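User: Please predict the structure of the protein below. I'd like the answer in C-alpha cell form so I can feed it into my own downstream comparison script.

Assistant: Understood. Taking the following sequence of 222 residues as input:
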Amino acid sequence: MDIKANLDAVKKTFVNPSCLLVAVSKTKPLPDLMAAYEAGIRDFGENKVQEIMAKQPEMPSDVRWHMIGHLQSNKVKYIAPFVYLIHGVDSFKLLKEINKQGKKINRIIPVLLQIHIAEEESKFGFDRAELEEMFASDEFKQLTHVQIKGLMGMATFTEDQSQIRKEFHGLKQLFDELKQKALPDFVQLEELSMGMSGDYRIAQEEGSTMVRIGSAIFGSRG
C-alpha cells in the first residue's frame, strides 16, 4: 500500500485546502506512521491512551499528537505532558480533570469541546443546554490550565448525505453563535473539527477547519 499516494489522492479531493488533515493512526504500526510522516504529515490522531503513549516516544519530536477518542478522566494524567490537542472533551468533569493535570505540570492544555450532533445515542458530547450551563458557571470561569480552541462533532453514521450536512451545518451555526458571546479569555474558538474518511468533503463545505482521516490514508483496519 502506498501511503503517500493515498495522501496525495485525499488532498486532491479537499474542498478547503487550508483545512488541517489529522491522520488517524489508531491500530496502525509505526512504519505506516513514518511513511505518512515522510509524506509531510505532522498531525496524528489516536483514540487510546495506551497506544498514544507507546507511539509518542518512538516518533519524531515534532509530531503533534491528537487524542481523538473518548477520554476517561483517570487517564488524562498520562497524556497531559505532551498531547497537542484533546478533541473529545464531552463533560465538565473531564474538562476540570484536564485543568487539574495541566496545573500539576504547569502546562496549558488545548482542547476541543465535543458537541452531540448525531441522532445515535452512542455518540458522546454536550448538548446546547449543558454547554450554556457550563459557560455560565463560576467554576468554569476559574479554569486556568486549559485552552478551549474550538468545537468537535461527529455526524450520524448514515448514507443520507442531507442528514450529515444538516448536522454539520448546525454545529457550524453553534460555533458562529458562540464566537459572538463574551466568554473567558481561555476560550478562543478557532477550530471546528468535523469530518472523517466518509464525510470530510461535506464537512469542509460546511466550514470544518480540521478533518480526521484514517482508512482513506492507511487502508481499512486489518
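That's the full C-alpha cell string. The first strand starts at residue 20 and ends at 24.
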